[in-house]
Amino acid sequence: MFNGMAGLIQGKIGNLVYYVKNGKQMVRKAGKMTKPPTLPQLQNRMELAVAVAFLRPLTEFINVGFIVGQKDYNNGKTSYNLAVAYNKPNAVMGLYPDVVMDFTKVLVANGNMDMAMLPSMVLTAEGIRFDWLCPDDTVWPRLTDEVMMLAYFPDLAKAVYVTSGAKRSACTDLLALPEELLAEYMEVYISFVANDRKAAARSIYLGRFNKVPG
User: Fold this and answer.
1) In the CATH hierarchy, which fold is given to the domain comprising 39-209?
2) Which of 14, 26, 151, 177 has the fewest CB atoms lying closer than 10 Å?
């Protein structure tokens, strides 16, 4: 916006556009974008919305599990940015408007630590018992690595998780669940994190409980 001859105004103020025509002050409403979005634009928007909706209840878990390096900091990326950047192209499936998460391809943690060895899970009256292999001859790089356990409830859009569980060498841990969630449909993941939070393992999808066919 600037003043022209005789103090006339040219430029945009709010939703009004001021201009000069034949030496006279004129004003009109700013135009609005009326062109409808393309199908690729709608697809991209829906994919992003689905990924963000899935990750939102997992923010604390993601902040621990997706390790941000110095280069990522320099590029302005956060753990949440990295999680979206991975899961949107790799774990979102379908064509607009039928876009959904593929839970089998989701990563809720990502790093270069050793992953859980042959992990398994069992649903009990208290929650989910996680087990992983601990061979007697294993040399643990870090005895203080801690298990990360997560149960995501798609129908409820909520999650229960632990980011600082048992030591890796314990070979088992329990993710306690409220009684009202034990019969709900859940998707389950496991990972490990260093106790100084400077390294993590790539998460492993363990499967689901209470999924109704169809």
Assistant:
1) Immunoglobulin-like (2.60.40)
2) 14
